[in-house]
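Below is a filled-in request sheet from our internal design queue. Each sheet records the structural input a requester submitted and the sequence that came back. We keep these sheets so that new team members can see what a complete request looks like end to end.

REQUESTER: design group, bay 2
PRIORITY: normal
MODE: inverse folding
CHAIN LENGTH: 504
BACKBONE (tokenized):
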């Protein structure tokens, strides 16, 4: 193991390191005359240090203070001829020697570091001040936010009361217009009155909707209503306007006689916005409106042969109070903004296709519960039903109910028992719980269909499911009813199942 560097290495290092340094060694006589001057390299020379001269005034005092001091004594950072020098005083035996070592560069570096440290400490002081200001600003911000929230709550209350104030008189005008229509069936005036009221109601609703924007408490007002009624009203509302512009106005819906559950007023708002635009921006040809319910989706589409919308404008038209194209027509530029907000709120989708000078198509897809036959309540029920559920209370409850409705009910509590009963009675309609102790309702239906393919199946369950085929591409269950079962819906499904009507 090495205990130190060899003499050879030490010698080498000394020489190498010395080569890099600039220094002068002075040997002094007792009267401080310079006896000899040795400089490290020819470029390095300190003025006034010549052999035979007396030690200059700048160095002499150092010798005074170092007399008798233990050596070597070092005076750092002495300024001589514009340079910074460490002065080492070697005294003792023999003449006094001074080693003058150039440390200008190191001194400069040190000064720069000190400067940096100073700057950093200034910065951190500044940061502390800024942090304090930030805290103040945050406090102020919080205060302002609380004030804004208060103001927004006041705005919501104002909107709620205004909407009531507006809607009530409009509703009463509409009601009287309705009455007038029955009293004066041949007059066009009541209808015009009704049309204007609808328009006014939509404008008011658009404005209120815009004012409510950002208010997360706004909820949809769900109700059950007839899709046919809405479509007929829309037809009545716009036909005069279409006739007045000599436009062909096509209104279609399918299937007929169905009920949907949505926010009716907002659905009407969407339709009025889209159709009034189509009529406003179409000058010849056709405007058509289709309402279709398929599966669990309501598809509305409005097509026109109007002036169309330029591709660049398609994005802008949804911005509030934005109108595009040359336009003398009235309009606040809010219709499409609101329409999109409403469709979003209903978890729906809005799509547009438009070509300038050719026309536009607006498609709206809104998820909404299955259609039910509006008239089914009135229709009589008779026939045999197999009801399978492993909950005895449910079985007894629905047995009583269905028998009240005029049906003969066979009850089973398992897949196996269900199959047995089916063999005995061959019921045209089977209602089964999804989860059974020995299998599931879809399995039971599949086995039944294998033998009696005409059987109609209804699945009930506490969980949500939309895939009535349950992975199979063959026959599907006609309905999936979620517990608690809506009796109106159940009755209407049974009516349609016995009639063999396709409900989707
Ligand atoms: P406005 O009250 O101006 O009709 P909207 O938000 O309903 O406001 O529509 C914004 C703009 O989109 C309209 O100014 C119009 O230029 C254009 N637009 C909307 N629907 C149609 C359409 N069916 N055909 C042509 N342009 C349309």
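RETURNED SEQUENCE:
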């Amino acid at each position: 193991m090495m205990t130190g560097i060899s003499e050879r290495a030490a010698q080498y290092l000394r020489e190498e390191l010395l080569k890099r340094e600039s220094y002068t060694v002075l040997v002094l006589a007792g009267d401080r005359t310079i006896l000899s001057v040795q400089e490290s390299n020819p470029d390095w020379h300190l003025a006034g240090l010549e052999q035979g001269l007396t030690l200059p005034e700048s160095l002499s005092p150092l010798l005074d203070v170092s007399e008798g001091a233990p050596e070597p004594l070092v005076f750092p950072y002495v300024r001589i001829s514009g340079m910074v020098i460490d002065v080492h005083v070697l005294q003792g035996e023999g003449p006094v020697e001074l080693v003058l070592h150039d440390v200008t560069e190191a001194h400069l570096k040190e000064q720069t570091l000190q400067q940096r440290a100073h700057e950093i400490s200034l910065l951190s002081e500044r940061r502390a001040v800024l942090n304090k200001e930030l805290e103040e600003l945050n406090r102020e911000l919080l205060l302002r936010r609380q004030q804004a929230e208060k103001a927004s709550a006041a705005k919501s209350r104002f909107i709620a009361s205004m909407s009531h104030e507006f809607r009530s008189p409009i509703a009463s005008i509409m009601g009287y217009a309705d009455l007038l229509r029955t009293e004066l069936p041949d007059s066009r005036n009541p209808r015009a009155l009704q049309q204007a009221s609808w328009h006014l109601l939509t404008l008011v609703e658009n404005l209120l909707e815009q004012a409510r924007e950002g208010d997360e408490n706004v909820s949809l007002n769900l109700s059950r209503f007839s899709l046919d009624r809405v479509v007929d009203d829309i037809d009545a509302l716009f036909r005069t306007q279409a006739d007045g512009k000599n436009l062909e106005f096509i209104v279609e819906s399918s299937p007929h006689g169905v009920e949907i559950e949505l926010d009716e007023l907002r659905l009407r708002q969407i339709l009025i916005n889209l159709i009034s635009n189509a009529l406003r921006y179409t000058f010849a040809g056709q405007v058509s409106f289709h309402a279709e319910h398929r599966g669990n989706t309501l598809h509305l589409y409005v097509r026109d042969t109007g002036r169309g919308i330029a591709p660049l404008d398609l994005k802008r038209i949804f911005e509030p109070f934005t109108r595009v194209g040359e336009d003398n027509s009235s309009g606040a530029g809010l219709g499409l903004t609101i329409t999109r907000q409403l469709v979003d709120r209903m978890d729906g989708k809005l799509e547009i296709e438009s070509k300038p000078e050719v026309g536009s198509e607006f498609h709206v897809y809104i998820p909404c519960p299955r259609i039910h036959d509006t008239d089914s309540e009135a229709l009589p029920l008779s026939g045999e039903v197999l009801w399978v559920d492993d909950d005895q209370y449910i079985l007894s409850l629905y047995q009583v109910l269905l028998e009240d409705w005029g049906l003969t009910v066979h009850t089973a509590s398992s897949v196996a028992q269900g199959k047995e009963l089916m063999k005995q009675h061959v019921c045209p309609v089977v209602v089964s719980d999804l989860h059974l102790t020995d299998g599931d309702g879809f399995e039971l239906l599949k086995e039944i269909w294998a033998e009696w393919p005409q059987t109609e199946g209804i699945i009930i369950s506490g969980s949500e499911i939309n895939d009535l085929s349950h992975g199979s591409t063959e026959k599907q269950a006609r309905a999936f009813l979620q517990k608690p079962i809506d009796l109106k819906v159940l009755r209407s499904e049974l009516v349609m199942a016995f009639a063999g009507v396709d409900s989707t």
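SHEET NOTES:
- DSSP finds twelve helices and 20 strands in the chain.
- The longest strand covers residues 286-294.
FILED BY: M.R.
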